[in-house]
Amino acid sequence: MQHLVLAPVLVPLLCGAILLLLERRHSSLVLRSGAWIGLALLLAASIALFARASAGGVEVYLLGDWPARLGIVLMLDRLGALMVLTTSLLAIPCLLYACAGWDKRALHFHALFQIQLAGLNGAFLTGDVFNLFVFFEVLLISSYGLLLSGGRGERMKAGMHYVVFNIVASTLFLVALALVYGLLGSLNMAELAVRIREVAEEDAALVRAAFGLMLVVFCAKAALLPMYLWLPETYARAPAAVAALFTIMTKVGLYSLLRVSTLMLGDGANALAGFGRDTLLMFGVVTLLLGGLGVVGALRLRISASYLVLLSAGTLFVAFALARPDTIAAGMYYLPHSCFAGAAMFMIAHIVQRERGEVGDRLLQPAPPMPRLTGLLYMVAAVSLAGLPPLSGFIGKFLLLAAVPDAATALVYAAVLVSSLLALIGLSRTGTRLFWRTAAVAEDEAVPPAAAPRSARTPVGKREIAATALLLCYGVAMSVFAAPILRYTDAAARQLLSPGDYIREARAATPAVRQP
């Protein structure tokens, strides 16, 4: 069973390759069946790895039996297992939503979807920063295809901005890796954690510059202010199933930041201990407030959903930058919640767009009344994203506020509470305009009937509703089973802040047969 650690990368990669070969000659039914089989295997592997990581150990897997310094090394700990399981759970409703019909319009959708899962899982499991770059590229290249396939007009324009931005960020990442390797002689995470402790004070400035560049790249991927400009328009223009899956892409940057800051720049890093924490905290606070203002000012539901993703990223930056066991544990609980609820909001936006016809999801134009079920789905998602009790958003934010150290209380409390209030105002205004201010009510406002012709409205299928409801059920389940989840995240946070086992296991791993 030692090879199971490889499964979250290998299974979707093989599945994607097979689907790529089949797509020219087989029907969508065959492709969907293959995609679901691959996803079922991935989910089973993710659950098994999550159970193994819960025991508290750290597992090392040397791919191809090559030494860690030469080959690909995968590391399994509580944080990695949580991220892989979150990815698998998120992928289920995304695939279900796409199988309602959109997958037929996107060339290579199923293959690219699986390859992106492989890239995401590889990024969460790798124990080497160069392979982190490689998996970044795998997930980004597949995301380019998912975003641009079948697109035109504004979506193509937003997609090209997204591609250019990420190419620049990836170039900077490569430069940062070259600097780190030149200064420290390794790119293995555990080895770097040891060598950073040995950096002399006179050499620390260069190492700070290299890691500063790397942190900038992670912040760009996670859409930290001011590098967030690519996110709202890109996510708003992406197809609903793709935008829903993209909600975890910003979390890859946050995961990388958390991994590097706790393993390499933690309290034992001597000259580099705590490097960048205060700066990240301040920028995280401003990102939080900006996300809240964006929700209030959004004129379309999809733009509002994009700013909610930005708001959740700001919350996580604050939680991780505080670098305390309780704040990190709260952030790790909040992270899956924000993925599920944010993805649900993108799907609801698409459902609203179809039910309102040509008016789409624009908030200023009334349209004929929509089904009550859509309103109910929106209400649950809005309550969760605004952080109101009793759903998981409230639990995550409450735990974060309860764990804030005294020195940062005023700043963090003000940022979290004000941003939550802004999100609540924005979501309330959006719900009022979409579900209460209907065309029948707005007849006195002389809205041209042609503005929302019923003929342009598209019926929403059961699969789309089921996929959205499943995402919201995840959030409800996180509220019901909050206690065991919080025990896990608390243990994971303490494991991150005490990286001795991680470093020891990684350095002790040797090839079973091959002699380096």
Order of strands in the sheet with most strands: 1-2
The helix-strand sequence is: HHEEHHHHHHHHHHHHHHHHHH
The major pleated sheet works out as: 2 strands, antiparallel
Distance between the termini: 24 Å
Mind telling me the C-alpha Rg? Answer: 23 Å
Count of extended strands = 2
Global mean pLDDT:
89
Q: What share of the residues lie within helices?
A: over 70%
Helix count, DSSP H or I runs of 4 or more residues: 20
Name the poorly predicted regions.
442-455
Structural classification: mainly alpha
Beta-strand level of the residues, as a percent range? Answer: under 5%
- Overall shape: globular
Can you describe this structure?
The protein is mainly α. It has a domain of 207 residues. The protein has 20 helices and two strands. It has a two-stranded antiparallel ribbon with strand order 1-2. It starts with 6 loop residues before the first helix and ends in an 8-residue tail after the last helix. About 3% of the residues have low confidence. InterPro entries: CPA3_Na-H_Antiporter_D, NADH_UbQ_OxRdtase, ND/Mrp_TM.
Per-chain topology:
Layout: H1 7-22, H2 28-54, E1 59-62, E2 73-76, H3 78-98, H4 109-125, H5 129-148, H6 154-184, H7 189-197, H8 204-221, H9 230-237, H10 240-246, H11 249-263, H12 277-297, H13 301-322, H14 325-355, H15 372-386, H16 392-403, H17 409-436, H18 462-480, H19 482-497, H20 500-508
Antiparallel strand pairs: 1-2
Helix pairs in contact: 1-2, 1-4, 2-3, 3-4, 3-10, 3-14, 3-18, 4-5, 5-6, 6-8, 6-9, 7-20, 8-11, 9-13, 10-14, 11-13, 12-13, 12-17, 13-14, 13-17, 14-15, 14-16, 14-18, 14-19, 15-17, 15-18
